[in-house]
């Protein structure tokens, strides 16, 4: 029977209990679905350091061990030429690393071509039997007397002008005035053109001349210095 000011239906304890149970189930479901999975990825306040080891996936360095010397080439390299004839003695390694494509390193031993020209010079001084490296020059055509600077190159250069004597930091060398776009660096000392004299404990004194050609899209002459830094006469 309806009375003014009083509800028609009275909420009993049983419906109230059912509603509370439903709310609890909804909250539990939300916890299981959203909150609990996120907590698995949460880092708690642990004071123990986490150490992760990162493996080097790059190619291993190439160790060279010849009769008169040893050296290390950064990354993967392959011996591509070994000339041992009356004119000169030399070894050449080419880079096998795709990131270092277009690079080769060459060393002449004792019988050295005196007419070998380069584009850049790395001056060397011998200090207590080891090589100390100076500053790599600019392209030699830009400072060699009689050479044609890069911004004034003609279509062709006569053969009489292809090789011109030059000097950088008191070291004499031959400037390549023809192949001006090449990236060939030579390492030499004031002892003579294309000459580095080194002595080893067992094989004694020998003459060397070092060359590095870097036609990579990103030239790195510093690699040449690192190779020479590892060169050890025997």
Short description:
This protein has helices spanning 13-40, 222-230; strands spanning 62-65, 69-73, 77-84, 89-95, 103-109, 120-127, 130-133, 163-168, 171-176, 184-188, 196-200, 204-214, 232-233.
Distinctive features:
234 residues; alpha+beta; 2 domains; three-stranded antiparallel beta sheet; 33% strand
* Strand proportion: 25-35%
For the termini, the CA-CA separation is: 118 Å
Give the overall form.
elongated
Radius of gyration from the alpha-carbon trace, in angstroms: 37 Å
Unreliable stretches (pLDDT < 50, length at least 5) are: 41-46
Helix fraction by DSSP (H/I, runs of at least 4): 10-25%
Number of continuous helical runs: 2
What is the domain total for the residues? 2
Q: What is the averaged pLDDT score?
A: 84
Strands, count: 13
Largest sheet: number of strands, sense, barrel closure: 8 strands, mixed
- Topology pattern, helix = H, strand = E: HEEEEEEEEEEEEHE
